[in-house]
């Protein structure tokens, strides 16, 4: 039985590229480098035990910052971080990453992916990828049934922090064809690709 099945939440606090390259299946990625406490408070269940997976030495900071927001059910951490799973490749997963240029090509193909924008509504109104679906990250768990079963999903936010959280959540809930847009909408704009605003929809 996996930890998540036993009612234990595994939060991986590493940077999103490291998490997406290899992680414990059914773990959620909420990186220490971003708005960690805010998103832990939003995403995690405060009543269930939490196990931390961090770069060695980062476990204490992750636990202390959880405690500050009332997430006191820290059951432990993986000693050595990912090294603790070195002999258990069967427990590892990964999330594909796609560049803005490649996504633009995919959207022109015969089987384009669905683009899921997990930004806040005001960010989406300012600039988004044409045809994208907006589900702000705090509402993703309650709207999972709106995700298509027959299309791959490319998820993005403004810079890539929230989209990694979202991609890990989608994986936990059985969505396997999930890709993260590297650098988010900021990278899309930096590549001189078109966006639409609220008045253009």
What does this structure look like?
The protein is α/β, with parallel strands linked by helices and 201 residues long. It folds into 2 domains: 9-93, Oxidized Rhodanese, domain 1; 96-200, Oxidized Rhodanese, domain 1, CATH 3.40.250.10. It contains 7 helices and 11 strands. The longest helix is centred in the C-terminal third of the chain and has 12 residues, at 161-172. It is globular. The chain starts with 8 loop residues before the first strand and ends in an 11-residue tail after the last helix. Mean pLDDT is 93; it is low at 1-5.
Mean model confidence by pLDDT: 93
**Cross-sheet strand order for the largest sheet:** 7-11-10-8-9
Q: What is the class of the largest domain in the CATH system?
A: Alpha Beta
Q: Provide the helix percentage.
A: 25-40%
Oligomer: single chain
Total individual domains: 2
From the 3D structure, determine the CATH topology of the largest domain: Oxidized Rhodanese, domain 1
CATH-assigned homologous superfamily of the largest domain = Rhodanese-like domain
Count of strand segments: 11
Distance N to C terminus: 47 Å
Radius of gyration, in Å, reads 17 Å
The structure class reads: alpha/beta
Q: Low-confidence spans: pLDDT under 50, at least 5 residues?
A: 1-5
Strand content: 15-25%
């Amino acid at each position: 039985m996996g930890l998540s099945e036993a009612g234990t939440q595994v939060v991986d606090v590493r940077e999103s590229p490291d998490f997406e390259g290899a992680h414990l299946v059914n773990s959620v990625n909420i990186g220490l480098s971003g708005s960690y406490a805010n998103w832990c408070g939003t995403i995690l269940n405060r009543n269930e035990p939490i196990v931390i997976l961090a770069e060695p030495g980062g476990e204490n900071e992750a636990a202390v910052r959880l405690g500050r927001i009332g997430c006191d059910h820290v059951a432990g951490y993986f000693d050595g971080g990912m090294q603790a799973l070195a002999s258990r490749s069967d427990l590892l997963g990964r999330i594909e990453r796609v560049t803005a240029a490649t996504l633009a090509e995919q959207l022109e193909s015969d089987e384009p992916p669905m683009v899921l924008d997990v930004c806040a509504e005001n960010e989406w109104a300012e600039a988004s990828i044409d045809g994208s679906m907006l589900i702000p990250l705090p509402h993703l768990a309650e709207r999972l049934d709106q995700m298509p079963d027959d299309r791959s999903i490319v998820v993005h936010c403004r810079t890539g922090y929230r989209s990694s959280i979202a991609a890990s959540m989608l994986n936990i809930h059985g969505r396997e064809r999930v890709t993260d847009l590297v650098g988010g909408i900021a990278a899309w704009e930096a590549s001189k690709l078109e966006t639409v605003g609220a008045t253009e929809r």
